[in-house]
Amino acid sequence: MPKKHYLNDFKMQEDGRYAYEGNHYAFAGDESERKSAYAKIIILLCVLIASVFGAGFITGGGMKNSFYVILPYICEAAALFFTAWYIVKLVSKGDTIREYDYNKTVKRLPNSLPIVAFFAATGLITSLIFSISTGFKEAAAQSVIYIILKALDVFLALLLRNMFLKYEWIKL
User: Fold this and answer.
1) I need a labelling partner for 144 at 20 to 30 A (CA). Which of 22, 124, 151, 159 fits?
2) Nearest CA to 123 among 88, 82, 157?
């Protein structure tokens, strides 16, 4: 099976243009429910992005001199980038999405959000270890803020995942 098997769903028309003849999927509610769901998703995603990148500006909790605190943060930011890409791609498609977009977004999101949560939790734990081992002597207030932001990241990523698992899609 070729890597891009969905290309078989495009058929040449009489005028020489290609048209998609594959399966389509739609959100299982009416338009107002879909718009409401997408609005909630976008708002939570924006808060998650602000929390993750806001934590990057904090120098306490080992963020400026400890690789084992910085590495989970970098991995979390990278995982969030790809997750945000999937969400933006999904929301920008509108009412119906093609099967290959469904497979690349709706099916991947419940699996990519726990990765974000995992790296946020790892960052929280490593920052706690660093802060406790140094006695909270290095920027204690910033360390506490960083730990709170990491806890918020875990919560938001898992909340978004639960939202995606709750929403249903129908094959048209």
Assistant:
1) 159
2) 157
